[in-house]
Specification:
This protein is of the alpha+beta class. Among the domains are: about 160 residues, Sulfite Oxidase, Chain A, domain 2, CATH 3.90.420; about 120 residues, Sandwich (Immunoglobulin-like). It is about 15% helix and about 30% strand. A 5-stranded mixed beta sheet has the order 6-5-14-9-10. β9 and β10 form a beta hairpin. The two termini are about 25 Å apart. The structure holds ligand MTE and molybdenum atom. Ligand MTE binds next to β3.
Amino acid sequence: MGSTRPDRRRFLKGGAALASGLTVGAVEPALGQLPEPSTFIKGSDEMVAYGERSRFVTSVRIAHPPDNRPSPDEFGLVFHVASPLQDSVGMITPSSLHFVGTTRGSFVPEIDPREHRLMIHGLVDRPLTFTMEDLRRLPSVTRPHFIECAGNRSSPRHTTVQETHGMTSCAEWTGVLLSTLLKETGVKDAGKWIVAEGVEEVKGASSIPMEKAMDDCLVAYGMNGEAVRPQNGFPLRLLVPGFEGIFNSKYLRRVKVVDRYYMTYNDYGHLNREPERAALGYQIGPKSVITFPSAGQQLPGRGFYEISGLAWSGGGAVGKVEVSTDGGRRWMDAEIQGTAHRMAHTRFRYQWNWDGQQTELLSRCTDELGQVQPTRAQVAEFFNAPGVPGQDNSIQPWRIASDGSVHNAIT
Ligand SMILES: Nc1nc2c(c(=O)[nH]1)N[C@H]1C(S)=C(S)[C@@H](COP(=O)(O)O)O[C@H]1N2
Ligand SMILES: [Mo]
């Protein structure tokens, strides 16, 4: 696939494009007075104590699916809740806007952390029960990781990036490596899998191979510098970096070491697949999406724009991201912002001068393993079905109409 290596000169040329582009745009010369704020907000106790965003910032999560179908067994209000990626900057999702995945509607168990316990048992040498206090005394790690629901797939019905891709988010998680806890309990030779279970009736339980459990799974109590939010698993959740969202059990209270894969309620998404393909579905493939400009947005006119988006992969760090501004004929390397962390959202940017003609914008992620984000046609071929029945990491095209309106270009 035709790609170019990062080219310093091209970025410099991009800078030149910025200078000329802005003269075309509507940026005013610095003359005269700037408007003064006419009112001031008095700091309330709440604002002093915890803080609040500006009332002019209105970005919010939405129910997913967007037509607000209830969860499969009609419990609770919504199935999942999607994050407003169109407004995102950087690579961290604020906790208030982190997507929420629930297998049984929008109900959230209320857990007193003083009462909460995590039990590790099954094929171990010493079954142990940890309090939250116990866990906080142990060596901890802090890492950025994305979570993505396996149902995060674009449909021609979707009209915004929040609808096509909003069921992924990236937070900075703090907690104890599961391997630290499993070394405390010891694992018997026959212990090849774990089942990680939350507190609810449906348990949010999943079977995870011991190799993964011992590698980088994280028992997290911290999220973006504070306690994990209730909707994301307070007081304790499992992070299974790079695996489908459903493996990341929230309200974690039990890890059972077992000798084989256990079938759970969470397997509904895997049952109708051949085992080989289901296994592949554990790990999120390389994926990316342009968040600006994206469907539903409006470009005010031709000229300079910084295209910006997110890339991630369950296979490790993002290696490179390419952008096409001509419907996929030519691909150019995007600039990666900062360090690309393993199994974390990575922000990319590309400097673009829009000539005002209709076109299509696309992005393509290659991860550190060399896995390349596929086209929608390739994914459909893999699943041997029209559309995308399983996890969809295909390239998302956005069509820019000549009036500057941006549309979902998949059909
Ligand atoms: N206990 C519990 N854990 C759970 C779930 C659940 O319903 N209960 N939902 C799963 C699903 S389907 C997803 S996609 C992720 C979403 O994590 P988040 O809500 O923090 O974004 O949590 C997983 N863990
Ligand atoms: Mo999910």
